[in-house]
Design brief:
The protein is built from ten helices and eleven strands. It is α/β, with parallel strands linked by helices. The strands form two sheets. Strands 4, 5, 6, 7, 8, 9, 10 and 11 form an eight-stranded mixed beta sheet that branches. The protein has a three-stranded antiparallel beta sheet with strand order 1-3-2. The longest helix is centred in the N-terminal third of the chain and has 18 residues.
């Protein structure tokens, strides 16, 4: 499993039974390399010869179980630098076990690019927006109000520690409050927000806290992979179900 080639073979065989020559072409390796790595997988019981075609190979049931875990290690390895100083300890274990959903995501760094990507994500939503909000920013309030007026289902989960700049309270919150009373925006509150999510029907993003537990607003993991979207949506729904109806006046205003 320390070999990228063997992992790639397992992933390929999870899709279809293949011969050595087919695997070599697909993975762009030599037939000798494919044969050597297949033999290693045969020895460990992850692969077997196909009974109807002795020249073809397929996963064993053990191999199928192992292969389903490969995305987890691919994602962790891909984002290993990010997770050197960020933590997932505030996410329930059942979602940490699904970190493989991050394998096709990318990391956006620095505050300006991060907020530009969030602005684009929210502005392009056509069906819904789900947000776990650590800190409000003026332009975001205008975008959410505009999206809600245009029929986008907006749900915002904030905490008592969510930061609302005074200018947001004065200029945007009255509009948000009116839309909330009209049922166009839904809001709930938790005691504390340790993890941020921004997701629409087509793209999702997540902000993890640093090792001190503070959400890092300058680093964003973002992607449009369906598995990542589902992962984010499941986390949002998990936290939403545990929140209570809340009002902005109980949040942190600076």
């Amino acid at each position: 499993m320390a070999s990228e080639t063997r992992c790639a073979i397992l992933i390929s065989l999870d899709k279809k039974t293949s011969r050595i020559s087919s695997l070599a072409r697909e993975l762009e390796i030599t037939a000798q390399d494919a044969f050597r790595n297949i033999n290693r997988l045969l020895e460990t019981g992850l692969v077997k010869r196909e009974s109807a075609d002795f020249g073809a190979f397929q996963l064993t049931e053990l191999g199928r179980f192992v292969t389903k875990q490969i995305p987890y290690f691919v994602a962790v390895n891909k984002h290993r630098k990010f997770f050197e100083d960020h933590t997932a300890k505030y996410i329930p274990d059942k979602f940490i076990h699904r970190l493989g959903a991050l394998q096709n995501c990318k990391v956006v760094e620095n505050v300006t690019p991060v907020f530009e990507r969030l602005k684009k994500l929210e502005s392009c939503a056509k069906e819904y927006l789900r947000i776990i909000l650590p800190q409000a920013w003026p332009e975001e309030g205008k975008i959410l109000a505009e999206r809600a007026v245009n029929g986008v289902e907006v749900s915002v989960l904030f905490g008592r520690n969510t930061v609302f700049p005074k200018e947001v309270i004065e200029s945007i919150i009255p509009t948000i409050d009116r839309l909330q009373k009209a049922g166009k925006i839904k809001g709930k509150m938790l005691d504390h927000i340790n993890f941020a999510l921004y997701l629409s029907e087509s793209e999702s993003s997540a902000m993890f806290p640093n090792v001190k537990g503070d959400i890092d607003m300058s680093m964003l993991i973002i992607g449009d992979d369906p598995a990542f979207n589902e992962w984010c949506l499941d986390i949002f729904n998990h936290m939403w179900d545990r929140a209570t109806i809340g009002s902005i006046d109980k949040a942190k205003i600076v």
